[in-house]
UniProtKB/TrEMBL annotation:
GO molecular function, one term: transaminase activity
Keywords: Aminotransferase, Decarboxylase, Lyase, Pyridoxal phosphate, Transferase
Cofactors named for this entry: pyridoxal 5'-phosphate
Keyword match Transferase: yes
Name of the protein in question: Aspartate aminotransferase family protein
Coiled-coil parts of chain: none
Amino acid sequence: MSIKQIVSNDSPVLSRADVPGKRHLFNQHNLAAFRQGIEQSLQLVSHRLAAVSQPFSGVLPQELAPAFAGIDLDQAVGDHAAVLAELATLYLDDAVYFHHPRYVAHLNCPVLLPAIMAELILSAVNSSLDTWDQSAGGTFIEQKLIDWTLGRIGLGPAADGVFTSGGTQSNLMALLLARDSHCARQTGGNVKLHGLPADFGRLRILCSSASHFSVQKSAALLGLGYDAVISVPCDAQQRMDSAALAQEIARCHADNLQPIAVVATAGTTDFGSIDPLTAIAALCRQHGIWLHVDAAYGGALLVSPQYRHWLAGIEQADSVTVDYHKSFFQPVSCSAFFARDRRHFAHVTCHADYLNPLSAAQEGTPNLVNKSLQTTRRFDALKLWLTLRSMGADEIGAMFDHVIELTRQAYATLRGDAALQFAAAPQLSTLVFRFVPQQALPDAVLDAANVYIRKAIFRSGQAVIAGTKVAGRQYLKFTLLNPETTLDDLLAIVGLIKHHGQHYLAGQRDAQAATAFSA
Ligand SMILES: *Cc1c(COP(=O)(O)O)cnc(C)c1O
């Protein structure tokens, strides 16, 4: 019987000649096209990079949207050059460039070259880190980085961890493990199997008023709701007040509520403040409460030659979040979650015959999916791996130390400026302040002026700064993560702030005069 006869219908036998998409597949037949595509992409990025004179074009959504309206995604443009030219106008011309020294808005970093090389390799090979049979060596690379970070934190021999998509997912994991281990200890209940206990309304999470909003978000996702989160007041430096925490714990117990976790932040998003970890750890130990340390931002202190001691106490945590895509200068995403006792990962373990059967675990096959909320998972670990193998840990730490020092110098220089009012002295690498001109003005006008300043600067594209509120009032924020930003850059941005602030107030005065005149 010939192959022809086996095929039941009249369709021709499939051969390699007519594989759809074959010119575009990553394999050994297409190496020339691969190289050409990479070179063209590299050229595009290089040209753009050479032309970047400010961090942003200033484009408004309504100005950019029409360019997308005419795009028909069903029709390929075809030729590489044309595809990339289109991408330049749709994306690269108006991208927000974090490598630019005057991008000082959010916790975005310029990225390291070894990590970009890793992106190319990991995307091309496309390992998926859920199971050994999809990643083999990749599994060990990730595990080795987890163990290395654990060693730096000092969580002890029973600890383990896993890479995640970011601090938000890490914090969710922390609170899930805290909730489920609390319920198991308290009532013997198994939340994974049976859901929340009947009295779940009594569960509480404590964090400071300056903690990240992913704590609230996690509480909602975990079926507890925002109401389960108790906001503990901060001291003047925006660090959790540990005496207030003790009071809140006592109040919980008096009200028959059950605190399942305290989230301490090592580097708050707005202020870079580090909660008093040792004092908080003592309280948690005393009351048997899970301590999670959110070091999404401050995690790089683990490799800091000068400031590692600022994290003292982190080794007493039950779990820790570290975002390598912030202070370790890694491309998004690169982040990890750690727990002191690896047995707690069982709360997220689920066995499937088609993927990670229990038998594989019993045979000792390292299937990382057993520790993760995700299934298919990027090999983000490779970025940190190539970075550490190329640069070593000290140089990354020195980069972070450098931006901390820059922040201090900027504060020392600017704090005497009568037109600026600082919310607090800096701790890691953020400065929170507002434009406050000489003349006495109502708070509402000051708030509006500072909102205006941020928008006007963004519109100009000359710099990108952030805004936030402190005690209900509008502030501006610099987040410094670029070691190439200089004091002069910051002074120039302050010049822009004053310029736009004065412009706004002048406009207000004119409007007032006009109203007075017409009245
Ligand atoms: C950024 C940040 C997070 C969230 O991390 P993502 O990676 O953005 O999900 C959580 N906590 C703190 C303190 C952060 O600064």
